[in-house]
Amino acid sequence: MTDFERYYQRIRRQQKRDTLIWSLVLVTLYLVAGRMSEFSLTTLWASMPHFFDYLWETLPVLHFSTLFDSVKTEGSLAYWGYRLHFQLPLIWETLQLALASTIVAVGIAAVLAFFAADNTKTPAGLRFAIRASVAFLRTMPELAWAVMFVMAFGIGAIPGFLALALHTIGSLTKLFYEAIESASDKPVRGLAACGASKLQRMRFAFWPQVKPIFLSYSFMRLEINFRSSTILGLVGAGGIGQELMTNIKLDRYDQVSITLLLIIVVVSLLDTFSGQLRRRVVEGSS
Q1: What pTM value is reported for the model?
Q2: What share of the chain is helix, strand, coil (3-state, %, to 5)?
Q3: Closest CA to 159 of 219, 216, 235
Q4: By the 8 A CB rule, do 108 and 197 touch?
Q5: What Gene3D superfamilies does this protein map onto (predicted)?
Q6: How far apart are alpha carbons 211 and 164 in whole angstroms?
Q7: What is the Cα–Cα distance from 148 to 281, expressed in whole angstroms?
Q8: For 127-136, which contacts have Cβ atoms below 8 Å and span 24 or more sequence positions?
């Protein structure tokens, strides 16, 4: 056996041993966490039929013979969607909420990121203050922000907008300044040697490198914010989530299903559209 083969076998044994040890550690942590949180697979399995029972109750009762009859005919599509005139504007409000909060947050996060990055020569005190602030913003879940803003401003779109914007600023600022820190410093040094100012170095050295990444993260966050805005509506922060919660509380099972269907359709369309737009913009700018 050659020295290389002995070395290879020793490394393989070490890798297998490390894999086994870390697997045991993860399994132990999982069991301990489940024990402390009173999580039980037995209870989950036993309760699973109730979940499917509820889903079955939300399915509308449609009759093929009356499928396309008027809204007054029970069993027709029009009867199932008799609240669409109210739900569609709420879907549009949810989209506006996600779009507005994302646009504002992207603009603020992009500025903060350049001051928070290590390689932009920002004073250490300012850099630490920005990083600590955005860490606090993203640590607080959107739902917690929404509850506080609902108590302060009342039910409506403003609490949802503020909750999404603050959390998005915290999340995107971190992603953005990490992208800036991973950028090559060769263009920066070249511009600095030519006497370029700090703003010019950011504009012509950093920005062309991080622009595709910024755009990609921004589009991804727009998708996330739409999903989050539907959840925020459950606590009165505007959007289609309020309609969903109302239907659940009033046991309007057929309206629960059509509300969920609208959300799924819009999320799918938004994912498809934003994905295509992201690829087109990023590939066109690279």
Answers
A1: 0.76
A2: 85, 0, 15
A3: 235
A4: no
A5: MetI-like (1.10.3720.10)
A6: 23
A7: 37
A8: 130/173, 131/177, 134/109, 134/169, 134/170, 134/173, 134/174, 135/170, 135/174, 136/170
